[in-house]
Amino acid sequence: MDRKTIRRLGLAAACAAFIVSPAFAQGMMGGPGMMPHMPMVAVQHSLPRQAPAAISRYGCMSCHAVGHGVVGPAFEWVAWKYQKQPDALARVSSFIEHGGTSTWGGMMPDLNVPDATARDIAQWILKLKPVQPPQTQGEH
To answer: Which positions bind heme c (predicted)?
Structure first.
């Protein structure tokens, strides 16, 4: 990763992006299967075509995925959590924009996502088919 990318993502996100990268899983640990707690499928997830480009640009896939949790919850789990909340768009947008601690089991870094971009990402997440997480962990 170059310095500009590290500055843009922030150190925590850059470290997370590296740790879940195929290069780390294969090169640092001797190849697939050497990290039993992190199967290769978890580091090779991809986005649906209709997802906002900002999800890739801001490194969201370092911690989140479609269909399963990584470090953070699956996007569909977030949709499930907020599906009946009238202020869902504002809450999810704010969390994307500002980061913070979460009862999902981690902390989302503040990646300086602009307000309009955070809103676009939140709208996309909330339009996904909600899927109940394997273990519901409350509010963040």
So the answer is: 60, 64, 108
Buried residues in 77-107 as b, exposed as e (16+ CB within 10 A): bbbbbbeeeeebeebbbbbbbebeebebeee
pLDDT at 105 over 80: no
pLDDT score, position 56: 87
Residue set of the binding site for heme c: 60, 64, 108
Report yes or no: 66 and 76 within 8 Å, Cβ to Cβ. Answer: yes
- Within a 13 Å sphere around the CA of 69, how many CA atoms are in the beta-carbon half? 17
Whole-angstrom distance, CA of residue 94 vs CA of residue 87? 11
Percent over 70 (pLDDT), the chain: 60
Q: Yes or no: say if 122 and 89 are a contact pair by the CB < 8 Å rule.
A: yes
Q: Give binding residues as ranges.
A: 60, 64, 108
Domains of the chain: 3-127 (1.10.760.10)
CA 34 to CA 39: how far, in whole Å? Answer: 9
pLDDT above 60 (res 124): yes
Q: What are phi and psi of 76, to 5 degrees?
A: -65, -30
